[in-house]
Structures are given as structure tokens and as C-alpha cells.
Design a protein that fits this description.
Length: 365
């Protein structure tokens, strides 16, 4: 992979994140919802998650938690999502040295609710972004969708050198849950947290320039190439079902997901690196979706990674839970804050989700 390709590729020039103000430990959530089943409590307390930020309704006068209808959950998806997305965008633009007036393309990603018009239109209205801003909404693809969206953002940026494109992942996971006492629901309810993450991407304005933010902010890594792997035989392993009894959408995670993802991680990475002249040992930085303890462990073992390689992934899981599509940007932000990447370093971004799918991106500093 040549230095020239790094210099001419779109680059990440800023990342921002946001979570709700209300955060709960796993034990607090168990007590709040009055969960006494020892099997469920074990799932929560052995998840490698310490806290999650969630938007929950206030308790009833008797101290119990109200049961939210699907309509109330969808309303929360919109109101909470717009608030989270706004803060993530503002944080991202500060990091990029940019303003709302600089935004030319907006791609919004979500899987925790359905709405029309989508978050892109709602954020343009909420933030006062130019009405001629190009936009895209990616809905329902799941935890892998942040990289699917980033592929589109990078392509748009490459076609419009010097102009700012934004990816915004908005996941109000507390708007997509069912409390029915089943082990199926317990696994999902033990895992996900609310959060939004945004990334600003710019391509160099000329063949001899390097990408910077609108105010000359130095760029982060160049987005060099993307790769996808779908496992059709596991298409039902992560999915939304309609629960007639509860009157809600119910998310399902197959217990074999960690092994499915782990088994396909190595060939997926090999395909990403094919033809680049790079080996796995040439990758200095790993940004992997915080899908859950077993998923992260399976990927780490199958790729031969160290615990240090996935330190930001496990740190985000510990502090926020699984943030769905935006998780990898939370991890990337921690990597960027370390300022440990050197010119010439390469990194891999990796997300996993329904399909079952593995998405990857090769980045270079």
C-alpha cells in the first residue's frame, strides 16, 4: 500500500460521541426492574459490562418500572435519537475544526427504530444545516452498519474533494427492548446501551494536498479500502421479530454468534489485505466493534490479537455496553486520544452484525 494512496484518500478529520446523562450499573438495572431470576442476574453480572447509559421512564409510585408500549418506544427513538445525534455532531465538528456551514453530506445510521422522515432530515432541521445538503439514511442493518455508512461517506468525499461529509450513528437501544422474563430477552437487555457517534471525512482538495479539516485541522487516518463478508447460512442469527404477546419488536441473538463471527474473521481480514502487500503483522491498530465479551474474545483468538490490541474495544464495552453501529467510533476516539499512531502505521476497523455480516476497513496514517 503506497504512501501516495494514503495521501490521496479520504480521511477522518474528527470524531464526536454522546450518551444520555443517565447511567446505570448492571446491578442497578437488575434491582430497578426487580429481576430476581439467578440465571438472568448471572448474565448481567458476567457480561464484562460495568455501566450503560440508557433513557428509561421514571418509576411508578410503587417503585416498579412502567411497561412502555411500542408507540412510546418509537417516540423515544426519535426524541432521544435527535438529542444524541445533535450532541455527537457538535462534538465531531469541534474536533474537526469545522462548523455546521461546512457540512455538505450527511449519512445517518440507526437500527433501534423506524421513522420517516429519517434522522438525516430531522438533524438538518434541528441543527440548521444547509437545506441543499446531500443525505442518506441507513436503517435496520444493525451493529455492522457504521462501516456500511462510512463506505458511502468516503465515496462521496472522494467524489467531492475538499468538502466535508458526516457519518452519524444514532442508537437509542433503550427504545428497542422487551421485558418478558425470557432468557432470549435477558441476553439482549444485558448488553446494549444508548449512544451516538459522528465522524467527519474529507478528501484532499488536490492531488498534491493532504486531507485536513476546514480550519486546517490535521487529518486522522486515510480510509484506504473496505471489505464485506456475509454469512447467508446465519441470516437468522441476529434479527428483529414481532412479538404479538408483547406488542413490540423483539431482538434475537443466537448463542452461536461469537463462533460464527470468529470463524469468518480471519478469511474476511485476508480478503481486506489481499493485493495490498500487507500482512496481519503490519497492522498496528485495531478498532473492533464492542459486540459482547464472547464476540470480542472469539475475534481476538481467531485473529491472534493481544488483549492490548482490543483494549479500546473492551473499554467501551465495560463503560457503555454494546452501542450498536456507533461502537467502533467510540473505540476509535479512544485510540485517537492516545496519540499513539505514527505516520506510516496501518489500522483495521471491524464491525459485525445481522446478515450475519463482517465489515472491515483498512486505514493508514
Amino acid at each position: 500500500m503506497s504512501a501516495e494512496s494514503r495521501a490521496t484518500s479520504p480521511a477522518i478529520v474528527g470524531v464526536g460521541t454522546s450518551v444520555p446523562a443517565t447511567s446505570y450499573s448492571q446491578r442497578e438495572l437488575l434491582d430497578l426492574f426487580g429481576i430476581t431470576d439467578p440465571r438472568v442476574r448471572s448474565i448481567f453480572l458476567n457480561s464484562a459490562i460495568e455501566r450503560r447509559a440508557l433513557t428509561l421512564p421514571p418509576p411508578l409510585p410503587d417503585g416498579s418500572m412502567p411497561v412502555e408500549t411500542q408507540g412510546q418506544l418509537l417516540a423515544k427513538h426519535v426524541t432521544s435519537g435527535v438529542a444524541l445525534g445533535r450532541r455527537a455532531v457538535e462534538d465531531c465538528l469541534r474536533a474537526a475544526g469545522a462548523t455546521l456551514a461546512d457540512v455538505r453530506y450527511l449519512c445517518c445510521v440507526t437500527s433501534t427504530g423506524l421513522l420517516t422522515p429519517g434522522f438525516s432530515a430531522l438533524l438538518i432541521k434541528e441543527l440548521g444545516i444547509d437545506r441543499h445538503c446531500a443525505r442518506l439514511d441507513v436503517v435496520g442493518m444493525g451493529c455492522n452498519a457504521g462501516l456500511n455508512g462510512l463506505t458511502s461517506v468516503a465515496s462521496w468525499a472522494a467524489a467531492h474533494p475538499g468538502e466535508l461529509a458526516l457519518l452519524v450513528c444514532i442508537e437509542a437501544c433503550s427504545a428497542a427492548y422487551v421485558m418478558d422474563g425470557t432468557m432470549r430477552s435477558a441476553v439482549v437487555n444485558s448488553l446494549f446501551g444508548d449512544g451516538s457517534a459522528a465522524a467527519a471525512v474529507v478528501a484532499p482538495p488536490t492531488a498534491t494536498a493532504t486531507a485536513t479539516g476546514p480550519a486546517g485541522t490535521p487529518a486522522g487516518p486515510a480510509l484506504l479500502r473496505f471489505s464485506s463478508c456475509i454469512v447467508p447460512e446465519a441470516s437468522g442469527a441476529m434479527r428483529y421479530d414481532w412479538d404479538d404477546e408483547q406488542g413490540k419488536f423483539s431482538f434475537y441473538l443466537d448463542p452461536d454468534i461469537p463462533y460464527v463471527v470468529g470463524a469468518h474473521a480471519e478469511p474476511s481480514l485476508d480478503r481486506l489485505l489481499e493485493g495490498t502487500g500487507l500482512n496481519r503483522s503490519d497492522i498496528s491498530h485495531w478498532v473492533i466493534h464492542s459486540g459482547g465479551k464472547k464476540v470480542v474474545d472469539s475475534v481476538r483468538v481467531n485473529l491472534g490479537l493481544t488483549r492490548r490490541d482490543v483494549r479500546h474495544t473492551t473499554g467501551v464495552l465495560r463503560d457503555h455496553g454494546n452501542l450498536s453501529s456507533g461502537s467502533f467510533l467510540f473505540s476509535y476516539r479512544r485510540l485517537a486520544a492516545e496519540a499513539c499512531a505514527e505516520p506510516g502505521d496501518f489500522g483495521v476497523l471491524m464491525t459485525m452484525g445481522p446478515g450475519s455480516t463482517i465489515e472491515l476497513a483498512l486505514v493508514g496514517w
